[in-house]
Amino acid sequence: MRTNILVAGSLNLDFVAGVATLPEPGQTVTGASFEWIPGGKGANQACAAGTMARSESVHAAHASEREAVRVEMAGCVGSDDAGAMLLRSLAAAGVEAGAVERVDGVATGAALINVDASGQNTIVVIPGANGRFAPVAVESLRGRLRECAWLLLQLETPLETVTALLRAARQEGARSMLDPAPAQPLARGLLSMVDILTPNETEARLLLGRAPGRVGPEDAPELARALRAVGPRAVVIKMGDAGCFYSGPEGEMAAPAFRVTALDATAAGDTFNAGLAVALTEGRPVAEALRFANAAAAVSVTRMGAQTSAPSRAEVERLLASPGA
Ligand code: RIB
Predict the structure, then answer these.
(1) Mutate to test the pocket of ligand 1, among 7, 37, 44, 203 (most ligand atoms within 8 A of CB)
(2) Is residue 178 part of a domain?
Protein backbone atom coordinates (compact mmCIF):
# COMPACT_ATOMS: atom_id res chain seq x y z
CA MET A 1 0.00 0.00 0.00
CA ARG A 2 1.36 3.43 -0.96
CA THR A 3 1.35 5.89 1.96
CA ASN A 4 3.18 8.93 0.59
CA ILE A 5 1.60 12.19 -0.52
CA LEU A 6 3.55 14.40 -2.93
CA VAL A 7 2.46 18.04 -3.16
CA ALA A 8 3.86 19.82 -6.22
CA GLY A 9 3.15 23.52 -6.41
CA SER A 10 3.59 27.02 -5.09
CA LEU A 11 5.31 28.42 -2.04
CA ASN A 12 4.56 32.08 -1.20
CA LEU A 13 5.27 34.47 1.59
CA ASP A 14 1.89 36.01 2.47
CA PHE A 15 1.75 39.69 3.45
CA VAL A 16 -1.48 39.80 5.39
CA ALA A 17 -3.40 42.95 6.34
CA GLY A 18 -6.39 42.70 8.65
CA VAL A 19 -9.05 45.29 7.71
CA ALA A 20 -12.57 46.06 8.89
CA THR A 21 -13.89 46.01 5.33
CA LEU A 22 -12.13 45.13 2.07
CA PRO A 23 -11.20 48.28 0.08
CA GLU A 24 -13.18 49.16 -3.05
CA PRO A 25 -11.22 50.18 -6.20
CA GLY A 26 -9.76 53.64 -5.59
CA GLN A 27 -10.38 53.47 -1.83
CA THR A 28 -7.73 53.66 0.91
CA VAL A 29 -8.57 51.94 4.19
CA THR A 30 -6.66 51.79 7.45
CA GLY A 31 -5.58 48.28 8.44
CA ALA A 32 -5.84 46.87 11.94
CA SER A 33 -2.94 44.39 11.72
CA PHE A 34 -0.11 43.26 9.46
CA GLU A 35 1.80 39.94 9.43
CA TRP A 36 4.14 37.90 7.24
CA ILE A 37 2.90 34.32 7.15
CA PRO A 38 4.13 31.28 5.17
CA GLY A 39 1.66 30.50 2.40
CA GLY A 40 1.22 29.42 -1.21
CA LYS A 41 -1.48 26.95 -2.19
CA GLY A 42 1.00 24.10 -2.63
CA ALA A 43 2.95 24.65 0.57
CA ASN A 44 -0.30 25.19 2.50
CA GLN A 45 -1.56 21.79 1.35
CA ALA A 46 1.76 20.18 2.23
CA CYS A 47 1.94 21.76 5.71
CA ALA A 48 -1.67 20.93 6.54
CA ALA A 49 -1.25 17.33 5.32
CA GLY A 50 2.07 16.99 7.17
CA THR A 51 0.60 18.34 10.40
CA MET A 52 -2.48 16.10 10.27
CA ALA A 53 -0.49 13.05 9.20
CA ARG A 54 2.06 13.17 11.97
CA SER A 55 0.19 14.65 14.94
CA GLU A 56 -1.32 12.46 17.65
CA SER A 57 -4.81 11.03 17.35
CA VAL A 58 -7.23 11.36 20.27
CA HIS A 59 -8.02 7.69 19.68
CA ALA A 60 -5.08 5.73 21.08
CA ALA A 61 -6.02 2.57 19.14
CA HIS A 62 -6.31 4.44 15.87
CA ALA A 63 -2.73 5.70 16.11
CA SER A 64 -1.24 2.21 16.03
CA GLU A 65 -3.68 0.90 13.40
CA ARG A 66 -3.23 3.64 10.83
CA GLU A 67 -0.50 3.60 8.21
CA ALA A 68 2.05 6.42 8.71
CA VAL A 69 1.52 8.92 5.89
CA ARG A 70 4.66 10.69 4.67
CA VAL A 71 4.28 14.10 3.00
CA GLU A 72 6.75 15.54 0.47
CA MET A 73 6.82 18.89 -1.34
CA ALA A 74 8.22 19.84 -4.75
CA GLY A 75 8.50 23.40 -6.09
CA CYS A 76 10.79 26.42 -6.20
CA VAL A 77 11.69 29.27 -3.85
CA GLY A 78 14.27 32.04 -4.21
CA SER A 79 17.62 32.08 -2.39
CA ASP A 80 16.24 34.77 -0.08
CA ASP A 81 15.00 35.03 3.50
CA ALA A 82 11.41 34.37 2.40
CA GLY A 83 12.49 31.07 0.81
CA ALA A 84 14.31 30.08 4.00
CA MET A 85 11.22 30.91 6.07
CA LEU A 86 9.04 28.71 3.84
CA LEU A 87 11.47 25.80 4.12
CA ARG A 88 11.42 26.15 7.93
CA SER A 89 7.64 26.05 7.91
CA LEU A 90 7.64 22.82 5.84
CA ALA A 91 10.18 21.27 8.22
CA ALA A 92 8.11 22.27 11.26
CA ALA A 93 5.11 20.48 9.72
CA GLY A 94 7.17 17.34 9.12
CA VAL A 95 7.18 17.78 5.33
CA GLU A 96 10.17 16.40 3.41
CA ALA A 97 11.38 19.26 1.15
CA GLY A 98 14.27 17.69 -0.76
CA ALA A 99 12.48 18.47 -4.05
CA VAL A 100 12.04 22.17 -3.28
CA GLU A 101 14.70 23.94 -5.32
CA ARG A 102 16.27 27.24 -4.24
CA VAL A 103 16.67 29.38 -7.37
CA ASP A 104 19.18 32.25 -7.55
CA GLY A 105 18.27 35.62 -9.02
CA VAL A 106 14.52 35.45 -8.49
CA ALA A 107 12.42 36.33 -5.46
CA THR A 108 10.33 33.79 -3.60
CA GLY A 109 6.64 33.98 -4.56
CA ALA A 110 4.59 36.50 -2.62
CA ALA A 111 0.91 37.09 -1.94
CA LEU A 112 -0.75 40.32 -0.83
CA ILE A 113 -3.78 39.41 1.26
CA ASN A 114 -6.49 41.54 2.85
CA VAL A 115 -8.73 39.83 5.40
CA ASP A 116 -11.91 41.54 6.60
CA ALA A 117 -13.76 41.28 9.90
CA SER A 118 -15.95 38.42 8.62
CA GLY A 119 -12.90 36.38 7.55
CA GLN A 120 -13.34 36.96 3.81
CA ASN A 121 -10.26 37.90 1.80
CA THR A 122 -8.82 39.22 -1.44
CA ILE A 123 -5.49 37.81 -2.68
CA VAL A 124 -2.97 39.05 -5.26
CA VAL A 125 -0.21 36.51 -6.06
CA ILE A 126 3.19 37.44 -7.49
CA PRO A 127 4.59 34.07 -8.71
CA GLY A 128 8.34 34.86 -8.54
CA ALA A 129 10.28 31.59 -8.17
CA ASN A 130 7.10 29.52 -8.59
CA GLY A 131 7.34 30.41 -12.29
CA ARG A 132 10.65 28.52 -12.45
CA PHE A 133 9.07 25.17 -11.56
CA ALA A 134 9.59 23.84 -15.07
CA PRO A 135 8.51 20.54 -16.70
CA VAL A 136 12.16 19.45 -16.64
CA ALA A 137 11.74 18.91 -12.87
CA VAL A 138 9.23 16.16 -13.51
CA GLU A 139 11.75 13.47 -14.51
CA SER A 140 13.53 13.84 -11.16
CA LEU A 141 10.18 13.35 -9.38
CA ARG A 142 9.35 9.99 -11.03
CA GLY A 143 10.86 7.98 -8.17
CA ARG A 144 8.71 9.86 -5.67
CA LEU A 145 5.61 9.46 -7.89
CA ARG A 146 6.21 5.71 -8.00
CA GLU A 147 5.91 5.63 -4.21
CA CYS A 148 3.10 8.06 -3.65
CA ALA A 149 -0.60 7.39 -3.24
CA TRP A 150 -1.68 10.92 -4.10
CA LEU A 151 -0.13 13.77 -6.07
CA LEU A 152 -1.63 17.13 -5.06
CA LEU A 153 -1.55 19.98 -7.60
CA GLN A 154 -2.87 23.53 -7.92
CA LEU A 155 -2.49 26.23 -10.60
CA GLU A 156 0.08 28.67 -9.16
CA THR A 157 2.95 27.05 -11.08
CA PRO A 158 3.35 26.81 -14.89
CA LEU A 159 0.56 24.86 -16.58
CA GLU A 160 3.06 22.84 -18.67
CA THR A 161 4.53 21.51 -15.42
CA VAL A 162 1.10 20.63 -14.04
CA THR A 163 0.31 18.80 -17.29
CA ALA A 164 3.64 16.93 -17.28
CA LEU A 165 3.13 15.93 -13.64
CA LEU A 166 -0.37 14.62 -14.30
CA ARG A 167 0.96 12.52 -17.19
CA ALA A 168 3.85 11.21 -15.11
CA ALA A 169 1.53 10.41 -12.19
CA ARG A 170 -0.64 8.29 -14.50
CA GLN A 171 2.45 6.47 -15.80
CA GLU A 172 3.81 5.83 -12.30
CA GLY A 173 0.51 4.70 -10.74
CA ALA A 174 -0.10 7.69 -8.45
CA ARG A 175 -3.57 9.22 -8.19
CA SER A 176 -3.92 12.97 -8.68
CA MET A 177 -5.98 15.67 -7.00
CA LEU A 178 -6.06 19.04 -8.79
CA ASP A 179 -7.27 22.22 -7.13
CA PRO A 180 -8.02 24.43 -10.18
CA ALA A 181 -7.08 27.66 -8.37
CA PRO A 182 -6.40 30.42 -9.28
CA ALA A 183 -9.19 29.81 -11.79
CA GLN A 184 -8.27 29.51 -15.44
CA PRO A 185 -9.64 27.59 -18.44
CA LEU A 186 -8.14 24.09 -18.75
CA ALA A 187 -7.89 21.75 -21.75
CA ARG A 188 -9.91 18.52 -21.83
CA GLY A 189 -6.63 16.65 -22.28
CA LEU A 190 -5.40 17.92 -18.92
CA LEU A 191 -8.72 17.40 -17.12
CA SER A 192 -8.96 13.82 -18.36
CA MET A 193 -5.75 12.95 -16.47
CA VAL A 194 -7.17 14.15 -13.12
CA ASP A 195 -8.51 11.65 -10.57
CA ILE A 196 -10.19 14.19 -8.28
CA LEU A 197 -10.86 17.79 -9.34
CA THR A 198 -11.74 20.12 -6.45
CA PRO A 199 -13.08 23.46 -7.73
CA ASN A 200 -15.18 25.94 -5.81
CA GLU A 201 -18.39 26.99 -7.55
CA THR A 202 -16.78 29.96 -9.34
CA GLU A 203 -13.93 27.82 -10.64
CA ALA A 204 -16.40 25.13 -11.73
CA ARG A 205 -18.38 27.64 -13.80
CA LEU A 206 -15.24 29.03 -15.38
CA LEU A 207 -13.97 25.55 -16.29
CA LEU A 208 -17.29 24.88 -17.98
CA GLY A 209 -17.05 28.13 -19.96
CA ARG A 210 -20.11 29.56 -18.20
CA ALA A 211 -20.56 33.23 -17.30
CA PRO A 212 -19.72 34.11 -13.68
CA GLY A 213 -22.79 34.31 -11.51
CA ARG A 214 -24.23 33.39 -8.17
CA VAL A 215 -24.37 29.66 -7.51
CA GLY A 216 -25.95 27.88 -4.60
CA PRO A 217 -25.56 24.36 -3.18
CA GLU A 218 -28.54 23.30 -5.34
CA ASP A 219 -26.37 23.89 -8.43
CA ALA A 220 -23.53 21.64 -7.24
CA PRO A 221 -24.80 18.26 -8.56
CA GLU A 222 -25.27 19.61 -12.08
CA LEU A 223 -21.89 21.41 -12.02
CA ALA A 224 -20.11 18.28 -10.78
CA ARG A 225 -21.73 16.04 -13.43
CA ALA A 226 -20.97 18.53 -16.21
CA LEU A 227 -17.33 18.68 -15.11
CA ARG A 228 -17.00 14.91 -14.94
CA ALA A 229 -18.26 14.78 -18.50
CA VAL A 230 -15.15 16.72 -19.60
CA GLY A 231 -12.65 14.37 -18.01
CA PRO A 232 -11.93 14.02 -14.28
CA ARG A 233 -12.71 10.67 -12.69
CA ALA A 234 -14.35 12.42 -9.71
CA VAL A 235 -15.27 16.00 -8.82
CA VAL A 236 -15.67 17.65 -5.42
CA ILE A 237 -17.37 21.04 -5.51
CA LYS A 238 -16.17 23.03 -2.48
CA MET A 239 -18.80 25.41 -1.16
CA GLY A 240 -17.27 26.91 2.00
CA ASP A 241 -19.83 27.11 4.79
CA ALA A 242 -22.29 25.13 2.62
CA GLY A 243 -19.99 22.07 2.70
CA CYS A 244 -19.07 20.09 -0.40
CA PHE A 245 -20.61 17.85 -3.05
CA TYR A 246 -18.93 14.76 -4.49
CA SER A 247 -19.64 13.01 -7.79
CA GLY A 248 -17.47 10.03 -8.68
CA PRO A 249 -17.33 6.28 -9.27
CA GLU A 250 -18.62 5.67 -5.71
CA GLY A 251 -21.78 7.69 -6.45
CA GLU A 252 -22.89 11.16 -5.43
CA MET A 253 -23.00 12.65 -1.96
CA ALA A 254 -23.14 15.96 -0.14
CA ALA A 255 -21.17 16.55 3.05
CA PRO A 256 -22.30 19.47 5.21
CA ALA A 257 -19.85 21.98 6.66
CA PHE A 258 -19.13 22.24 10.38
CA ARG A 259 -20.42 25.35 12.16
CA VAL A 260 -17.52 27.43 13.49
CA THR A 261 -16.79 31.13 13.98
CA ALA A 262 -14.67 32.13 10.98
CA LEU A 263 -11.73 34.44 11.58
CA ASP A 264 -9.89 33.99 8.28
CA ALA A 265 -10.87 31.86 5.28
CA THR A 266 -7.34 31.95 3.80
CA ALA A 267 -6.16 28.42 2.95
CA ALA A 268 -9.45 26.76 3.93
CA GLY A 269 -9.60 25.18 0.46
CA ASP A 270 -5.96 24.08 0.71
CA THR A 271 -6.63 22.50 4.10
CA PHE A 272 -9.70 20.72 2.69
CA ASN A 273 -7.58 19.11 -0.05
CA ALA A 274 -4.92 18.15 2.48
CA GLY A 275 -7.51 16.54 4.76
CA LEU A 276 -9.09 14.68 1.86
CA ALA A 277 -5.71 13.36 0.69
CA VAL A 278 -4.65 12.25 4.19
CA ALA A 279 -7.95 10.48 4.84
CA LEU A 280 -7.99 8.73 1.44
CA THR A 281 -4.34 7.70 1.82
CA GLU A 282 -5.26 6.14 5.16
CA GLY A 283 -7.85 4.07 3.31
CA ARG A 284 -11.01 5.77 4.56
CA PRO A 285 -14.15 5.53 2.41
CA VAL A 286 -15.02 8.66 0.40
CA ALA A 287 -17.93 9.77 2.64
CA GLU A 288 -15.70 9.63 5.73
CA ALA A 289 -12.84 11.36 3.91
CA LEU A 290 -15.12 14.24 2.84
CA ARG A 291 -16.26 14.72 6.45
CA PHE A 292 -12.64 14.68 7.65
CA ALA A 293 -11.73 17.28 4.98
CA ASN A 294 -14.67 19.52 5.92
CA ALA A 295 -13.66 19.35 9.58
CA ALA A 296 -10.03 20.17 8.75
CA ALA A 297 -11.11 23.22 6.71
CA ALA A 298 -13.46 24.34 9.47
CA VAL A 299 -10.69 24.27 12.09
CA SER A 300 -8.41 26.23 9.76
CA VAL A 301 -10.84 29.16 9.38
CA THR A 302 -10.91 29.69 13.16
CA ARG A 303 -7.29 30.91 13.02
CA MET A 304 -5.50 33.70 11.15
CA GLY A 305 -3.18 32.94 8.26
CA ALA A 306 -2.39 30.11 5.88
CA GLN A 307 0.16 27.66 7.31
CA THR A 308 -0.40 29.10 10.81
CA SER A 309 -3.95 27.72 10.63
CA ALA A 310 -3.09 24.10 9.74
CA PRO A 311 -5.07 21.87 12.13
CA SER A 312 -3.73 18.99 14.16
CA ARG A 313 -5.36 15.57 13.81
CA ALA A 314 -6.73 15.84 17.36
CA GLU A 315 -8.44 19.17 16.57
CA VAL A 316 -10.08 17.63 13.50
CA GLU A 317 -11.16 14.55 15.46
CA ARG A 318 -12.61 16.67 18.29
CA LEU A 319 -14.69 18.66 15.80
CA LEU A 320 -15.84 15.43 14.14
CA ALA A 321 -16.97 14.13 17.54
CA SER A 322 -18.56 17.37 18.73
CA PRO A 323 -22.28 17.41 19.62
CA GLY A 324 -24.43 18.01 16.55
CA ALA A 325 -21.58 17.26 14.13
O1 RIB B 1 -5.04 29.56 -0.81
C2 RIB B 1 -4.42 30.55 -0.05
C3 RIB B 1 -3.10 30.93 -0.65
O4 RIB B 1 -3.31 31.54 -1.89
C5 RIB B 1 -2.31 31.94 0.14
O6 RIB B 1 -1.49 31.35 1.12
C7 RIB B 1 -1.55 32.69 -0.93
O8 RIB B 1 -0.18 32.51 -0.88
C9 RIB B 1 -2.14 32.23 -2.24
O10 RIB B 1 -1.33 31.32 -2.87
Answers:
(1) 44
(2) yes
pLDDT by residue, tens only, the chain of 325 residues? 899 999 999 999 999 999 999 999 999 999 999 999 999 999 999 999 999 999 888 886 566 566 789 999 999 999 999 999 999 999 999 999 999 999 999 999 999 999 999 999 999 999 999 999 999 999 999 999 999 999 999 999 999 999 999 999 999 999 999 999 999 999 999 999 999 999 999 999 999 999 887 778 899 999 999 999 999 999 999 999 999 999 999 999 999 999 999 999 999 999 999 999 999 999 999 999 999 999 999 999 999 999 999 999 999 999 999 977 7
Q: Give a yes or no: residue 325 inside a domain.
A: no
The helix or strand, by DSSP H or E, that contains position 297, with its residue range, turns out to be helix 286-301
Q: Whose CA is nearest to atom 6 of ligand 1?
A: 39
- Alpha-carbon distance 123 to 33, whole Å? 16
Query: Domain for residue 59, yes or no?
Result: yes
Residues having CB closer than 6 A to ligand 1 are: 10, 12, 14, 39-41, 44, 111, 123, 125, 156, 266-267, 269-270, 306
- For atom 10 of ligand 1, which residue has the closest CA? 40
The whole-angstrom separation of Cα 100 and Cα 320 is: 34
What residues have CB less than 8 Å from 44, skipping those under 6 apart? Answer: 267, 270, 271, 274, 306, 307, 310
Going by CA atoms, what residue is nearest to atom 2 of ligand 1? 267
Amino acid, single-letter form, for residue 80: D
Question: Looking at the domain assignment, is residue 112 inside a domain?
Answer: yes
Q: Report how many domains make up the chain.
A: 1
Amino acid in the structure at residue 221:
P
Say if CB 41 and CB 156 are below 8 A apart. Answer: yes
Q: Which domain holds residue 269?
A: 4-320
Ligand 1 pocket, mutate which of 15, 37, 41 (most atoms under 8 A from CB)? 41
| Residue 302 alpha carbon to ligand 1 centre in Å | 16
What CATH number did the domain enclosing 38 receive? Answer: 3.40.1190.20
